[in-house]
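Below is a filled-in request sheet from our internal design queue. Each sheet records the structural input a requester submitted and the sequence that came back. We keep these sheets so that new team members can see what a complete request looks like end to end.

REQUESTER: design group, bay 2
PRIORITY: normal
MODE: inverse folding
CHAIN LENGTH: 251
BACKBONE (tokenized):
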């Protein structure tokens, strides 16, 4: 059996870490299964996923000559997925959220991929602070318009992802849609001067965790901090990415 799951990152609120999450997904799949996934970057504004050379992501131009989003371009994305023998991650920008979710809802693209033997997972982000309600609205839209299982990422960069002291797992949204939630991943807020700065530098350099940990350019303590962060991500992602798969498929 070939591991060929497709992971699509979607959230209508901008600046909440979607591309960061997609890059982490790609790296985790590579680490867990020993396969570099096909990466597709559809963000018409910032193709962040393509900033990481090691991931070898492909850019998909979804704008027409009038600088408007052409939803038919998502057909090309589906063809790429069907032709690819292996896993895939897809990064979508906030501006393409409505067209992308509309495309998935109206065309039956998820059913087409499922019929071809590709499981599809949607990943979305919740953040703390003022934008929390906007990100919850984005999750609700995905629950209403798609049928795929959803992985919820709690990004604590802007503060705890909770309301009245209650985390997402304790919310009515979670309990009413528990069968649709394939997992919850927490991006813990690191010390800004230590691991936070290390992660920021990693992004600026366009390096993966594996590259940084193998590079002589990084000192021992920054490497140690990155190793701890990376181990936390893998510990959370491994059971989500391997659920429902035969034992031994992961590396």
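RETURNED SEQUENCE:
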């Amino acid at each position: 059996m070939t591991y060929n799951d497709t992971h699509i990152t979607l959230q209508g609120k901008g600046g909440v870490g979607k591309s960061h999450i997609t890059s982490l997904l790609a790296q985790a799949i590579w680490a867990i299964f020993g396969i570099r996934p096909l990466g597709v970057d559809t963000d018409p504004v910032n193709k962040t996923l393509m900033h990481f050379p090691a991931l070898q992501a492909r850019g998909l131009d979804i704008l027409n000559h009038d600088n408007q989003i052409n939803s038919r371009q998502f057909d090309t994305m589906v063809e790429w997925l069907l032709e690819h023998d292996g896993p895939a991650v897809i990064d979508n920008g906030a501006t393409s959220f409505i067209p992308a979710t509309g495309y998935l809802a109206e065309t039956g693209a998820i059913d087409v991929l499922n019929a071809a033997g590709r499981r599809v997972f949607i990943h979305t982000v919740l953040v703390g602070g003022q934008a929390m309600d906007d990100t919850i609205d984005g999750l609700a839209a995905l629950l209403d318009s798609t049928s795929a299982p959803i992985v919820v990422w709690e990004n604590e960069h802007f503060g705890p992802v909770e309301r009245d002291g209650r985390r997402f797992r304790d919310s009515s949204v979670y309990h009413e849609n528990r069968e649709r939630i394939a997992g919850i991943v927490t991006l813990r807020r690191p010390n800004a001067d230590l691991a936070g700065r290390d992660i920021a530098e990693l992004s600026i350099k366009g390096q993966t965790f594996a590259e940084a940990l193998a590079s002589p350019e990084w000192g021992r303590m920054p490497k140690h901090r990155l190793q701890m962060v990376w181990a936390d991500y893998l510990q959370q992602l491994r059971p989500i990415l391997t659920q429902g798969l035969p034992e031994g498929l992961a590396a």
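SHEET NOTES:
- The CA atoms of residues 51 and 198 lie 17 Å apart.
- The chain has a mean pLDDT of 94.
FILED BY: M.R.
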